[in-house]
Amino acid sequence: NPPNRPPKCTWTLGSSAKSPHHHEVRKINNKISQTILENIGFTPIVRLNKIEKKFGLKCNLLAKCEFMNPGGSVKDRIALRMVEEAEREGKIKPGYTIIEPTSGNTGIGLALVAVVKGYRCIITMPDKMSINKDSMLKALGAEVIRCSSNVSFDSPESFFGVADKLQKKTENAIILNQFANPSNSLAHYDNIAEELLNQCDGKIDVLVAGAGTCGTLTGIGRKLKERIKDVKIIGVDPLRSVPSSTEYKVEGIGISFIPTVLDRTIVDQWHRCNDKDSFQCARYLIQEEGLLCGGSSGSALSIALLLAKDLSEDQTCVVILPDSIHNYMSTFINDDWMIEKGFMEDPSTANDLKPWW
Ligand code: PMP
Predict the structure, then answer these.
(1) Measured between alpha carbons, how far is 119 from 26 in angstroms, rounded to an integer?
(2) How far apart are CA 286 and CA 293, in angstroms?
(3) What is the pTM of this model?
């Protein structure tokens, strides 16, 4: 195991009363913000009316719009939480450098927090990630190092290996390490899960989310299981030819090792998504519901649709839409890209999504 990733979870996440962690509930700010960081979270949850009708669903199908965060993704929440926890513990001080290996969104969140708080930020990122993320990171003043996507995660050339090397040679540099940092799932446990419970009046039967670090699944899942009897937590991971492959094109999800952050007892079912359904579903969310989301949102929806068809009128399925269209202007939003990659045949029928069961 690389030095930053202990082999198994060394901490527990639990109800705030018994938890060993610092917990905090953020309050919505409808007035003038002192910084944009006050506006992280508090995202809308929207009913997918047209998709329910098109697919003949009886249940309520709801989307949590994490693409509406200031940095465009759910990862703004963990970026803020990891930095503020490190500040609280005295691990990071003015003038320090934040280094993070990330598929992009945690990097954008950290770059946003760093620019507001005045830290230097260096992001190591696999080269398969879109150029749009690269541009956004650089616009936020972060330094970006692209690393090979075709090496194993424990190779020195991987985005993990490069971040480790860089930390060793940079003075006062910290890797917050979203894959092992308890603040990752804590941010979801304390914040997004509370928002969901509030917004849905505690009525959620199925929650579907993509799996990357698994912070979203573990944090939300843990809180919902404490509060809702029989809620089902569904993890979505991309289909690939071999387990270590990074051949799939959807960004931000895909487990190539078991992250420390994942509590496997929380997830009731794992499902494999494929690229074509993921991108078509994401385009459908944009075209039919006006939700300007990214590809992994489509991955979650493609699996939610399979499960939702068996739910009844009084049941609710929530899908997490983790990031925004603006990461993907050069990829799945583009018809030529979709055709070139074999995810679409004819643009005129491209968005005519049909039930696949
Ligand atoms: N979708 C996207 C686009 C992401 O960037 C991420 C984070 N890597 C996820 C889904 C998965 O979130 P988590 O890391 O909490 O499992």
Answers:
(1) 23
(2) 7
(3) 0.93
Residue 105 three-state SS: helix
Its ipTM equals 0.99
Atom of ligand 1 nearest to the CA of 104: 5
Handedness of CA 247, 253, 254, 259 (dihedral sign): positive
DSSP H or E stretch at residue 120: strand 120-126
Residue identifier of the C-alpha nearest atom 9 of ligand 1: 252
Asked if the model's pLDDT at residue 5 lies above 60, the reply is no
Amino acid at 159: F
Ligand 1 and 331: CB distance under 6 A: no
* pLDDT tens profile 225-262: 999 999 999 999 999 756 666 689 999 999 878 889 99
Tell me what pLDDT residue 168 has. Answer: 96
Instruction: Say if residue 97's pLDDT is above 90.
Output: yes
Look at the block and give the residue holding tokens 């990733």.
5
Ligand 1 atom at minimum distance from 184 CA = 15
Interval between CA 33 and ligand 1 midpoint (Å):
27
Residue-level pLDDT at 286: 96
How many whole angstroms separate alpha carbon 49 and alpha carbon 194?
Answer: 24
List the catalytic residues: 75
Q: Which of 245, 306, 315 is nearest to 281 (CA)?
A: 306
Q: Is 72 in the pocket of ligand 1 (CB under 6 A)?
A: no
